[in-house]
From TrEMBL:
Catalytic activity: (S)-2-hydroxyglutarate + A = 2-oxoglutarate + AH2
Chain ranges passing through the membrane: none
FAD dependent oxidoreductase domain residues: 37-418
Keywords on record: FAD, Flavoprotein, Oxidoreductase
Region (Disordered) residue spans: 210-240
Named cofactor requirement(s): FAD
Domain of life, per lineage: Eukaryota
One Gene Ontology molecular-function label: (S)-2-hydroxyglutarate dehydrogenase activity
EC number: 1.1.99.2
SUPFAM superfamilies: FAD/NAD(P)-binding domain (SSF51905)
Descriptive protein name: L-2-hydroxyglutarate dehydrogenase, mitochondrial
Native species: Hypocrea virens (strain Gv29-8 / FGSC 10586) (Gliocladium virens)
Protein family membership: Belongs to the L2HGDH family.
Length: 427
């Protein structure tokens, strides 16, 4: 229903619709319902939709399968503003995280989104972990330009609030936390103020690139998508199907991104997504009282950054996420049986933790392009973000494997999508 209303609302006349200097040849301008269709209403999709809605004379629809925005990975994470310290300088994760961090702090200041610059200690307990911190320090100071500093043993003892760092501690000075729900509401509001349309409860069930000879015509010399895109949307599970058209499509569907990708490409180019569930555990005791984020030094080949200590804006402590590989992306029940394993990891850097005050809290899901993919760019199996115009198509920007640090990177990803479509960032 929402999708049909959105389509009817924006069936504009040929006198008011024209190509907006798109970075490709399009013949779809006078037929399409929208200039841009962004699939996926998480924080990344919201940021992209808001960015594209600023393009003069354009129209943008954000298509979300759930009844509200940001109900999947975007609302089930640590809410950390990452500094960008783990990834090689040539990786998208590094570039977009560092740029996104600055954009995010600026947006929060401008629009009153709650956040806090907490800083973060990375702590090492043995020689191998110390070497990992030294590699991060060298990467940050020599290549990335991200502020970090060594924390002396004396400072750990005096200001560590019970944290153990037997082999050293490295501080990330620009790490923070943000209210992710307020951030997404802010982005949604800015998008709608720019006349953007949000189509909720509208799962995409089919996509067809158009060329001058018709949908994916083999007889046409123009590439698929050069005449726009048809998008079939269901009015909820088992509901009626409605079709909207757009000049461009952005796949920002997160956990559903590979499914959207596979709707478009031939069988030989289809991908598989792997699901890394992260269990979180809340802490109800008043001691120890920690005022900053605490992360264990990264372990080589690990699929995450370790069971770390994070804070919410009220100062409440939570631990997680761990990494539990699952087959079902909807399996979001916290696995309480993993609590003892989490306790063992937490006690390595916070021996004074009251284990009786730890209880299962919530779980999130990370979309991985490879099973047991490594978190650090220096490890084998590292999977970078994919943000690209797909070769052989016109008007399709594809985002795959957008996990951590996706929230931090969201505004920079939006800038990049704008450049891919228009040749420069639209502001």
């Amino acid at each position: 229903m929402l999708a049909r209303r959105a389509t009817r609302l924006f069936r504009l006349s040929s006198q008011t619709r024209h190509a907006q200097a798109l970075n490709f040849s399009s013949t779809a301008a006078v037929q399409a319902d929208f200039t841009h269709a962004v699939i996926g209403g998480g924080v990344v999709g919201l940021a992209i939709a808001r960015q594209l809605s600023l393009q003069p004379g354009s129209s943008t629809v954000l298509i979300e399968r759930h009844s509200a925005v940001g109900t999947e990975t975007s609302s089930r994470n640590s809410e950390v503003i990452h500094a960008g310290i783990y990834y090689g300088k040539d990786s998208l994760k590094a570039k977009l995280c560092i740029r996104g961090k600055h954009l995010l702090y600026a947006l929060c200041d401008k629009h009153g989104v709650p956040y806090r610059r907490t800083g973060k200690w990375l702590v090492a307990q043995n020689h191998a972990q110390r070497e990992a911190l030294e590699r991060i320090h060298a990467l940050c100071t020599q290549e990335l330009g991200v502020p970090v500093r060594w924390v002396s043993g004396k400072e750990v003892d005096e200001r560590g609030e019970g944290v153990l760092a037997a082999a050293g501690a490295l501080e990330s000075l620009t790490t923070g936390i943000v209210d992710s729900h307020s951030l997404m509401l802010c982005l949604q509001g800015l998008f709608e103020e720019a006349s953007g349309v949000v189509a909720l409860s509208s799962p995409v069930v089919g996509i067809r690139p158009l060329s001058s000879g018709g949908p994916s015509s083999s007889s046409s010399s123009s590439p698929p998508g050069s005449a726009g895109w048809e998008i079939d949307v269901s009015d909820g599970p088992g509901g009626d199907i409605s079709t909207m058209t757009a000049e461009t499509v952005v796949n920002a569907a997160g956990l559903g991104s590979v499914a959207v990708h596979n709707m478009i490409v031939p069988p030989a180019q289809r991908k598989q997504l792997f699901y890394a569930k992260g269990n979180y555990f809340s802490y109800s005791a008043s001691r120890p009282k920690i005022s900053r984020l605490i992360y264990p030094a990264p372990e080589p080949g690990a699929s995450g950054l370790g069971t770390h200590l994070t804070l919410d804006l009220a100062g409440r402590i939570r631990f997680g996420p761990d990494v539990e590989w699952v087959d079902d992306p909807n399996d979001l029940t916290v696995n309480a049986s993993r609590l003892q394993q989490a306790v063992a990891e937490i006690q390595k850097y916070l021996p004074g933790v009251d284990t009786s005050a730890l209880v299962p809290d919530y779980a999130g899901m990370r979309p991985k392009l490879a099973s047991k993919g490594a978190a650090s760019a220096t490890d084998k199996g590292f999977e970078d973000f994919i943000v690209r115009k797909e070769q052989g198509y016109e008007g399709w920007v594809n985002l795959l494997g957008i996990e951590s640090p996706g929230l931090t990177s969201s505004l920079a990803i939006a800038e990049m999508v704008g450049r891919l479509l228009y040749g420069q960032a639209n502001s």
